[in-house]
Write a structure and sequence with these properties.
- Strands 1, 2, 3, 4, 5 and 6 form a six-stranded mixed sheet that branches.
- The chain has about 250 residues and is α+β, with helices and mostly antiparallel strands.
- β2 and β3 form a beta hairpin.
- It has nine helices and six strands.
Amino acid sequence: DSDYWIEPHSVETLIKFAKKYNADIVTARRCREFAGKTIYSSKEGEKVRIARGDEILAFFGKGLLHDVVWNKLYLAECFSGIRFPDGHSYEDVSVTWKILTRLAKTNGTAVVLSEPLFHFRMRKSSISHTESCRNINDGWAAYYEKYEGVPEYRKQFLAGCLWHIGRMWRNYYGFSRKEKTAAAHIVLEMRRFSTEHFRQIMKGTYSIYIKAICMVSQSSSPLMMWFCFWGGKLFRKIRNIRRRKMYD
């Protein structure tokens, strides 16, 4: 993929630590590369962190093990019976939690390196910036599946679900009639979800943005969808002006 590159010694480093700790997965720090600026995935901590068994899901809940698959070396057996969903976005989210859950149950080992080995070139045309109805539906389905699949860390994954609900509310008014009809049941699912978790979100330490999404998505008024759509367009315009110089 032309948007990604690795350091020359990446494979050698990953294999070295996989052998040293008899690891099922070795992951390294990743970077988002903008024009003239690098943003690291996390602050540099311990050079090597080891997680075994249930610790793997704890690392996942804390964000030390992330959903993306492209910054990891895996034993082939990790994917036994697990495949990426064909024709859908957010396939990383769909499979990573399944692999890590299996490793947690089978007392597997994951190694986390702080060295930045993986680079992701940020472009305006990246699929991750797509706000189509299908892309939003895929994102919601993947994050909700992870939320349901890892009950021990639902609190940590709740914000991800709300973030995709926000995407739907910001873009729904601009969809075609056909897209709105196809997304109608998804909108109802999202509304039920935000309603069920309203108190938890409002009383929790979630961001103001997540709390605002939870409040707004309670409404079934078309006027609210219209307001969110135009408010979202204004927000993205301001954000893009600020970020324009960062992209290639």
